[in-house]
Structure formats: C-alpha cells, structure tokens
Amino acid sequence: MTCVRRLKEYEDKLREEHGSPASSVFTVSGLVGVGSTTVAEIVSEEFEMDMVSSGTFFRRKASEMDLDLTEFFEKHRNPDVGPDPDLMWDRKVLGLAYTKEKTVLEGRLTGALLCDISDVRILVSCSEDVAVDRLAKRENTEPEYAKKRLLERNAEDIKTYREKYGIDITDEKYYNVFVDNSGSLGSTRKEVVRKIRMVLEE
Question: Nearest to residue 40, comparing CAs of 150, 124, 144?
C-alpha cells in the first residue's frame, strides 16, 4: 500500500525533526451526515483549541481547480491522476500533529491515522434518518435521493480507505470517545464535554 509507506516515511521524518508529537491534539471522525464538523466546532469552542477541517481543506483544493467536490474526488482519486487528495490531507494532519498544540483535526481518517498520537479520538454517529435529513437540507435535494447518496458515499469512503490504507474507519478500536449526534445541539455539547473530560481525567 503506497499511501501507508509514504505516510510512514513522512512520520519518521517528522519524528526526527520534532521528536515527540505536539500536546493536546484531538481528532473528530464520522461518516457522511453525522455532523462531525459541528462536533469539532463544539470541541474547539469548549476547550479553546484551533480547528482544522478536512471539508474546508478539500473544498479549497477543489475551488482552486474550478471543480465541485464530487468532480474533484472523481478525478483525483484516480491513481493515474495526481496529486492524491487523501494523501495531501493525511500529510497535513500528520504535520499538524507534530507541530501544532491544542488542535482539533476533523476528518474521516484522522482518528485512525493518529490513534497512537492523539489524546482524544472522537467517533461521531447518528441515526440514518437524521443523517439523511441533514444531507437533503445541505444539498437541497429530496430525502429519497439524499438517502441513496448517503449510502453510496459512505460505502465508497469505507472501501477507499480499506483498499488504500488497510483501515476500516468504522472500527471502534481507533477511538476513545463515542458521541451520538442525533439529538439537539445542546445535548450533543453536554455529551461531548462530559466524555472528553472523563478521558482526560483517566
């Protein structure tokens, strides 16, 4: 797996340059529509940390190439077309983990990628109905189509990361905080803060 080898080489270089990773690095991960960005924003606010989001990173890269996100990934996840957007983001994540303290890193693979580095690794979930409703509103489409897209995108992401990295991003072994984001923003905020504090006090 070329991506794994390249990331290992890059991490070895970071370790030589910086020694140990930065302190207080948290990750937030989750599938499409679960609200992982919202949870990352909560963590950033409550614990006074900087936040870096994969969504923002990819949207900026797509915009630079005058593509929407779907076109961007369809084009650049082709192994014959570079650079690989996943590898670009993963290198950025590793770099920040070694150089930037008090940072929340949000992305599908961040928890698994930094499972031996990050102090707090949050996996966000929610009911399928809630995820479909969020996606339909975000993309201004009908619920039936949103559900189809949700299932397709999640299956594609899981398959992509398993094939490229040998990682199942839904495997709970990579995480130490589990948040159900099906309810209100207020209830999610309370749950996130309580569970993170429990982990930090261990």
Answer: 124
Continuous H helices in the chain: 2-18, 36-46, 54-64, 69-76, 85-99, 110-113, 128-138, 143-165, 185-201
Question: Which residue type occupies 154?
Answer: N
Q: Which of 71, 74, 86, 70 is nearest to 3 (CA)?
A: 86
Mean local confidence (pLDDT), 170-190: 96
Q: Work out the average pLDDT over 142-162.
A: 93
Task: Please determine, looking at this structure, whether the domain spanning 2-184 carries the CATH number 3.40.50.300.
Answer: yes
DSSP string, 33-54: TS-HHHHHHHHHHHTT-EEEEH
Q: What is the pLDDT of residue 5?
A: 80
* Domain range annotation of the chain: 2-184
Position 163, amino acid: E
